[in-house]
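Entry 12.
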Amino acid sequence: MKTVQINSVCGIGSTGKICVAISELLNEKNIENYILYSMGNSDYKQGIKYSNDKYIKVQALFSRILGNYGFNSYFATKKLISKLKSMNPDVIHLHNIHSHDCNLTVLFEFIKKNNIKVFWTFHDCWTITGYCTHFDMIGCDKWKTACKNCPQAKDFSWFFDRSAYLYKKKKEIFKELDLTIITPSKWLAGLVRQSIAGEYPVKVINNGIDLNVFKPTDSDFRKKYSCENKFIILGVAFGWDVRKGLDVFVELSKRLDDRFQIVLVGTDENVDKQLPKNIISIHRTQNQKELAEIYTAADLFVNPTREDTFATVNIESIACGTPVVTFNTGGCPETIDEFCGSVVPKNDMYEMNNEIIRIYNDVPYLKEDCLKRARKFDMNDRFEEYINIYME
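Predicted 3D structure (tokens):
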């Protein structure tokens, strides 16, 4: 058997790391495999780049002007197909192919013509909508019937709302395929079954993490930031905004007294301008080990995201022994159980504040229970599931 994964990146970002982890497991089983990617650079030996960053930027501009997100990039897709022809794979595993690097019509015409088995991991909701990667925060359900008059169209095109056209084009793609859809959460699987892709089998494979990296890790973090006697509330995100709940932390900083210290990781100078002085802002970490040190130093991880498919950060936190409080958003509740964290209604600031204080007073969650739950998300076990369904 020969498999090819296709993703926007290789070895970086959450999806790029997932691709490499799957590839390494395939290597252990002596299964020939490759990763075709379009952006950035990778030194992974089986990663093959089929486009270039300059071309991607030009296609992104065209998409902004024309509004045909997902149906540009003709020449890059022809190069991608040329690579696939030379590899002649038995299985194609698609991940994120919506970084202006693929023309869906051209790619799927090739796949159908050659009767290739396809696995497609939906890491977000883009595949079942006209435009949107997420629609939960705005409460839109047009994707169930037919996207049109998209409330988020301006995020994808300066001039045209072509959501109805793109929805129709995607609907055409989901015909006569040998396809199995994979989602990281039951929540997303439920949406897919109501969508234009609903006729295909859907399998849930949770995202996994490296438990050799994310584990209880001692450090001098508390001393370094003068938090020795504080109850540290941690937030981690990359791209802090309202969707990630930045405003929630700002409000919590006003409500919680000086027994508490909020620490946010993944900020930048623009975010700093929005933060009060009593929030510690950390722009970036040197590596994942340092991030594990911060998770370990914290007393509670708070995740007020308003849109998320699965929230791997929740798992990283419990793997370091730190319990979680999360909004009831997307697949976030699926990452924890009643022994390692709690779920509060989305956007309920009052309940979030009360839950933090309850946890401070009662200390209801044990480190050992957090670690036990995290073992369910060992990446070797989770990504082994991909190999098993390839074999089927």
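Annotation: The two ends are 11 Å apart (CA to CA). The mean pLDDT is 95.
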